[in-house]
Amino acid sequence: MTLAVQDRLRATTPKLARLILVLALLMLAMMLVSMAVGYAPLDIKAALADALAGRKTLPALVLVELRLPRALLGALVGFSLGLAGAAMQGLLRNPLAEPGILGISSAAAFGAVVVFYSGLSATMALALPLGGMAGAAMATLLLYAFLGRGAGTMTLILAGVAINSFAGAMTALALNLAPNPYAALEIVFWLMGSLADRSLLHVWLVLPPMLLGWLLLLSTAPALDALTLGEDTAKSLGFDLTWLRARLIGGAALAVGSAVAVTGAIGFVGLVVPHLLRPLVGNRPGRLLLVSGFGGAILTLAADTALRLAPIRPELKLGVVTALIGAPFLFHLIHRLRRDV
């Protein structure tokens, strides 16, 4: 590494640390706003004092059972989607890539739909998220099977498209064969994505796999930076690309699969956030990972708070709101790419 590069890194590291600190504080502020916003006024300070003192008052129950899990899940799910989106775009070197491109999100959604369809969701509280995780695990095993045959990036994308199509078709089949209209409506509403009516049990269930997924994704930062110079250069620098893909698939499956398992499909966060924050980190995919994670958490919390403030009843689904934000952004991105070409 040259002296000029070393000087540049020393100059940019404090800026990156300040950016991460600012985003982390913004995320915490958004969590507080999320807990303060609801359909009825809540004295957060009094509710928190009651909860800490062990008093089971109504404000304490509303805070602990409803608003705190919603804010925590918003941050966890958004962080997972933003982080995985930045990692996928770095691996595939494609600005249109997002976590769903490998089919993990669709497979997780299909796993949850199977639980709905079979009636298991009515027999066990955590059957739904566990079904989603099982679907994500199956997709991951299929992708690893392709990796084991020495597949390249293009094969990986095609395998993801195939898994995506199959999971989508099976979900449509389940809807088509739903035993009654209410079951079909329940599945459709769940697929739209929401943070409503989740509990701390859901938080504890997804936290371990998400943390492991984040660690795997963050560990790929140096390899992603090297990959911007081309696969041959990255190999010559000592990075094993098969091992890199394996860590990214495993990390995305754990983080995104867990997120989809508890909230349903929430799209576009992993696509939009890395684009918005990339210029702030000098377009380096490795530095973008953690920054995009916090950005995804902020965007998800902001969207969830906005839908509760909107004078629309019944409450809009979070996946609908993120799609309303993300679809115009995608059109703008495609237009910009065409103009640059």
Textual characterization of the structure:
Helices cover 77% and strands 0% of the residues. The protein is globular, with a radius of gyration of 21 Å. α1 runs parallel beside α13, α3 packs antiparallel against α13 and α5 (127-147) packs antiparallel against α11. It has 341 residues and is an all-alpha fold. The two termini are 33 Å apart. The chain has 14 helices and no strands.
Helix content: over 70%
Class based on secondary structure composition and strand pairing: mainly alpha
* Rounded Rg: 21 Å
Strand content: under 5%
Number of helices: 14
In short:
With 341 residues, the protein is an all-alpha fold. Helices cover 77% and strands 0% of the residues.
Give the topology.
Elements: H1 3-36, H2 44-53, H3 58-92, H4 104-118, H5 127-147, H6 153-176, H7 181-191, H8 200-218, H9 221-227, H10 231-236, H11 241-263, H12 269-277, H13 285-309, H14 318-340
Helix pairs in contact: 1-3, 1-13, 2-3, 3-8, 3-11, 3-12, 3-13, 4-5, 4-6, 4-7, 4-11, 5-6, 5-11, 8-11, 9-13, 12-13
What labels describe this entry?
0% strand; mainly alpha; single chain; 341 residues
